[in-house]
Amino acid sequence: MGKVIVVTGASSGFGALAVRRLALAGNTVYAGMRETLGRNATAVADLKAFGVENKADVHAVELDVQSQESADAAIGSIVLEQGRLDVVVHNAGHMVTGPAEAFTPEQYANLYDVNVLGTQRVNRAALPHLRGQRSGHVVWVGSSSTRGGTPPYLAPYFAAKAAMDAVAVSYRAELLRFGIETTIVVPGAFTHGTNHFTHSGAPADTSRASEYEELYPGLMDQVGRRLAELEPSWADVGAVADAIVDVVGAAKPPFRVHVDPSSDGAEVVNAVADRVRGEFLRRVELADLI
C-alpha cells in the first residue's frame, strides 16, 4: 500500500521533482507550498495536470513553514482527508550569496527561520500523529556543505543547513523508540536544474558588500563557474528525487544518503562523524538508538 507523504517547499526544484516521482511510485503525495492561490497558482495547476495525465495521487496544500498556524492547518487537513500521515519530507529552504559580513543579523535570523525553524514547526504539527501511530519516517533534505568542501560567500546558508543537520541527528535518536525512522538526504552543489542559485538572496548592506570587491573581485561569479565545471556532465538533479523515493520505499531506511556528483568530501567526513556518534551512544548505554 502506498504511503501518505507531505513534501515542504514543493513548488519547484527538488521538492517538485520529489512529489512527482513519489506519486509515480504509488504514493499519495501532498506538495506543500505558499500562496497556492497567488504566485504559486501556476505550480498548483501544473501539479494537477500532472496528476490527471499520469493518474497520480498528488495534491497541493497551502503550507508556509514560517507559520505554525499554516503548518498545523496543512497537516491537519492531510490527516483529516487520508486518516493518517506516514512521511514528512523537509525540503523547504532558501539560499543567499555574498560576503558574510554584509548580511544583517536580521537576514541571518530569517534564513535560520526558513531552513531550521520551519522544520520545527512542521514537526510539531506532524509528529504527534506519527508518534500516535508508532510509525513514520522523517526525511530531511540537507546539504553536503555541512561537512564537505565549502567556498566562501555562502556562510549564512551553510550555517543554517549545518544547524538543520544537527537538529535532524538529535531527532533521529529521540524518535526511534516511537517507530519513526529518520533519513538525511545530502545533495551536493547542483548548479543547474533548480532555482537555488538564480533565486538566491543578496546582502542587505550593499555598501559593505562592495568593499569586498577590492580584494575579492567577482568572487561569486568565479565560484559559480568553478562549481559548474566541477559538476560532471551526467549530473542530474532528478537523482535527489530518486534518492528520496528509494529511502521512502526502503524496508529499513538508511540514516544518511549522499547525492553529490562533484564529490566534495562530505560523504567521507559524515561517515566518520556518524560512526563516532554511534560509539558514544554505546558508551552511554543507548545502543538501541544507533
Automatic annotation (TrEMBL):
This is NADP-dependent 3-hydroxy acid dehydrogenase YdfG. The lineage of its organism: Bacteria, Bacillati, Actinomycetota, Actinomycetes, Pseudonocardiales. It holds the Pfam family adh_short. It comes from the Bacteria. It comes from Lentzea albidocapillata. InterPro entries: NAD(P)-bd_dom_sf (IPR036291), SDR_fam (IPR002347), SDR_oxidoreductase (IPR051911).
